[in-house]
């Protein structure tokens, strides 16, 4: 009988540890109140590159961004699917955009 109690305690502890580790959220940086959710990393890179060029390309990048980006409220809970040096592929786990998937810049993930 002590073996089954011990295994049950270990299982409960494991569930608590896993649940505590899944509390990721998006974080707005600076004076922003929302975080941009891009459809994928390629779109993020393309818009970022257009904005760096300046002039008319920056304006086009800003307009294009408004069509393809979803805005997430600060502290929206997410599940991280994968990460790299630029950011993370995520899925929104709660709120009005629940179930939405996309790419978020690294500075906006905690």
List segments where confidence is low: pLDDT < 50 over at least 5 consecutive residues.
none
Provide the residue-averaged pLDDT.
85
What pattern of helices and strands is seen along the backbone?
HEEHHEEEE
The spatial strand order of the largest sheet comes to 1-4-5-6
Strand content: 25-35%
Strand elements, count: 6
What sort of overall outline do the alpha carbons produce when their principal axes are compared?
A: elongated
Structural class given helices, strands, pairing? alpha+beta
> Approximately how much helix is present in the residues?
40-55%
Biggest sheet features: 4 strands, antiparallel
SSE layout:
Blueprint: H1 2-21, E1 24-25, E2 34-37, H2 41-53, H3 55-68, E3 70-73, E4 77-83, E5 87-92, E6 101-105
Antiparallel strand pairs: 1-4, 2-3, 4-5, 5-6
